[in-house]
Amino acid sequence: MSPEGSVVTRTTRQRTAIAELLDSLEDFHSAQELHGMLLARRSRVGLSTVYRTLQAMADAAELDVLRLDDGQALYRRCSTGHHHHLVCRECGRTVEVEGPAAETWAARVAQAHGFIDVTHQLEVFGTCPDCAG
What we know:
By secondary structure, this protein is α+β, with helices and mostly antiparallel strands. The protein is built from five helices and six strands, in the order αβααββββαβα.
């Protein structure tokens, strides 16, 4: 831990390989999918290392995490700033969207119930035009 109490993450060969892979991808992917892609690139990174690294990167706000109904976590590098996702159920295509109405609604509901320091995540699932066509 650093003097400020935050976790210090070392940059390792494995972490660099995972970060470079994520930088080259647009959509969300599971740890298992990312591990398979790393193996295809001949990167020697174990699946448990992929899981640990993804969790550390998510904790450091370097990744967005999408949790599916079955509990599976999907990971992706995202732009900075608060945003939401529109996700295709068929192919996984993901579009970042702003949601001012959702922000207003969340603040209003929280205030009505006396909640403070509120955060939220919003993912909207559907079928993209390519998959629907």
